[in-house]
Sequence to fold (669 residues):
Amino acid sequence: MILIQNNYIYKLNSHNKYKPIKYKMKKIITSIFMICFFINTNANNGDTIHVVSHRDVLIQTDPGIGHTEYPLWAQFPASSTPIRKIMLKMTFKCPPGLRCGEWDYSNHIVMRRKGGVAGPDQNLEIAGFITPYGWNFPSSWKFEWFADLTDYESLLRDSVEIEYQHSGYEARADRGWLVTLDFIVTEGAPIMQTNNIQKLWDGNFRYGDLANDIETHLVPVSVNMNSQTKVARLHLLQTGHGGDGTTGCAEFCYPNRALKFDGGVVDVKQIYEPCGSIPLYPQGGTWIYDRGNWCPGMMVKPYIYDFNVAPSSNHDIDIDMDPYPSASGGAGNYVVKGHLIQFKEPATTNDLEVYEIKSPSSEYIYGRTGTVCSNPVITVRNNGKSNVTKFEIRYGIEGLGEFVQFWNGVLIPQEKIDITLHNILKPTATQNRFKAYVSYPNGVGDEYVFDDTLFSKAPVVPNWDSTIVFAYRTNLRSSENSYTLKDDLGNILYERTAGSLSNNTNYKDTFVLSSGCYTFHFKDNGGDGLSFWANSAAGNGTAKFQKPNNTLIKNYNPDFGNEIYQQFTVGDPEYRAVTGINELSNIGTVNVFPNPASDMVSIDCNFTTPQNIQVEILNLLGGSVYVQSYNNTSADVLDINTSSLSNGTYIVKIKSVGQEFTKKIFIQH
Fold:
């Protein structure tokens, strides 16, 4: 079988893999083993460690005092272990025999002590969370969230007391939550080494209280940089709660916060988080209402700012809130936790990471948009100290073809960017591992290859008939509703615009489609779906897909907040060549075989002109176990004795002038 894709010709080989047999562009072979934080597996190669501080711990409120604490000790890696990343995976479930909690209460994950019970109480919040309205969740309900805690790796060492703090006043006899905190630690060279962590603000401050205003607490803080500090990073957790009944401040109003560095305003941010599109829906309560940087059933998003500083320099940092919008004296408050983390400069110059795969993904947090047949979305981060202006992305379902895309722009150090890829995916029940990897930042080899690759589990996309019917009934706010049906290239095939529908009316729109991948997007500009208990005046609507004979295909819960997002296929979609990408020059190919290997590995090099190359083999911690140079290599097979290497996974790097290839190999004697 032949697949023509992105100026490549692929042939299906005897191992059911597509093999490129003709090249019109630069072919870079990068296959890096990386256990991503999306998959909860045991580390069997020494690169990923799971540290669980709380496992199915029952948390409940104490209505007498309004808060409960659950401190437990966990054993993290020693200070001598190099750590690349720490991701927290937090799991909530309904307790056996009880219902899930009812209300949206503030929760805090805190690093208390390290080194033993005699250690000083540091009381440093590393993550925040708001519980969902879970009273109507079924007993089998479960959800998972993630938080990046890498910046606190210097504290998460050896014995650490992690405290889960739960607030609230609801009854505890018949409800609660089961909580698991799994810290996923990836070993490897740190992106930047930590010098110091300092609290700047830590409190619960009234907003608009004339006798005790928030600005009397959010005062400028003077900070002194370490002698090796090059980057100062501000972590700011800020959420608004409560209100005066008129302005809704601070929970339901959205003032601005100004960040000042050495007296100058460097950022102005509205303290606001939209909630109508959160992944955990529907819930009870007023889950759809936008709030002061939080939503029920979501981690609190930290505001993060980086400052390039000189070693041993001194600086002032300040945050100022807009004046309270009413003279009533205020009734709400802001919880503010600000930390300044000092780092040495990044260890690398050109270093990219596939930070996250948002789609395709089977993770709970991407439940709305993770099931896709086209336009996958990945997040790439620049971990080096130079701007990145171009790089290459390769992606696809393993065993079903690989595609290439080139990115051009400006990605500054430590910045993350979401990138939409352009091709059709066809995962199956047995071939559903999506792989994305990046290479050649600024046209040169990546200096740290172990996080260039990430995998996710791709859900199988529903396959529907060529003729389908969207049947829906509007509520009494039909002017808020619209929809589009697009093909994989973004062309609108069918649509209803806002204002074109009538209230309380049944519609049946028939779509006749050819083979392909399609995206259906229904929007409610009011943010309360087609039915919401707190807005009974809007009436009730329905939405579903069905066959022309009225057989149901899929029914949608009308309490969906902002939108319904659905991708589906018809027939067997064809792969498309990506248009509008830049060709790069052909630099040749390198293959490594056999794989797995035992006592000998062969490297098949094919260059258009003779090259002087260096071959290096590294273990998964980045340690070099073999280095050898070869001159005037063009079409040669290089044999390397691997009998002295231990069983396990290794990375082979082949470098020449302006070129670098990497390949994963397994050694098994």
Confidence is low (pLDDT under 50) at residues 1-46, 579-587. The chain has five domains: 48-187, 194-343, 354-457, 463-570, 589-669. The longest strand covers residues 600-619. The chain is about 0% helix and 50% strand.
